[in-house]
Amino acid sequence: MIGLPPQKHWRAIPEHNPGVELDAFVVMPNHLHGLIILQATRRAQSHRGVMPLRNKDILVPERSFGALQPCELPTIVRSFKAACTRRVNQLRGAPGQPLWQRGYHEHVVRGDDDLEQLQRYIEENPLRWALDRENPQYGK
Question: Cβ distance 11 to 22 under 8 Å?
């Protein structure tokens, strides 16, 4: 990925989504990991999701049962990916080019131990890049 768009747009998520907090986040050469905390707004309990994203093509939700709602994880991820894609394509002079894979992975955090494990995984992820099979330098 090019430069700052992921970090800038990640930090802006709470500005556009009341009740959303951010936690650990790391941008890797071909993906990112981040923890998004969704406060209970329309539900009785809070939801915490983790979203590792890979940069293959743009997210196009495959939902046919209604419009995406503000402050819900699918809307937040779609907006984040769209903002990054516009800026990266502007920087590389390639409007309309795909940047992200379809979809993303989410995980509901089940307590403090789970949260701490995910935070540690995200913080240590750059140290594992040399062992990642998708790293062009892997095995060299």
Answer: yes
Least confident of 35-49, 58-72, 120-134: 58-72
User: How is residue 17 written in tokens?
Assistant: 């989504």
- pLDDT one-digit tens code per residue, 111-121: 999 999 999 99
CA distances to 6, 40, 46, 89, 115 from 111, in Å: 27, 16, 11, 38, 6
On whether the CB atoms of residues 84 and 53 are closer than 8 A, the answer is: no
Residue found by looking up tokens 């747009």 in the block: 9
User: Do residues 111 and 12 touch, judged by C-beta distance below 8 A?
Assistant: no
Token output for 85:
């894609």
The answer to which of 47-51, 57-61, 65-69, 120-124 has the lowest mean pLDDT is 57-61
d(Cα 112, Cα 60) in Å, to the nearest integer?
Answer: 32
Round to whole Å and give the CA distance between 85 and 100.
8
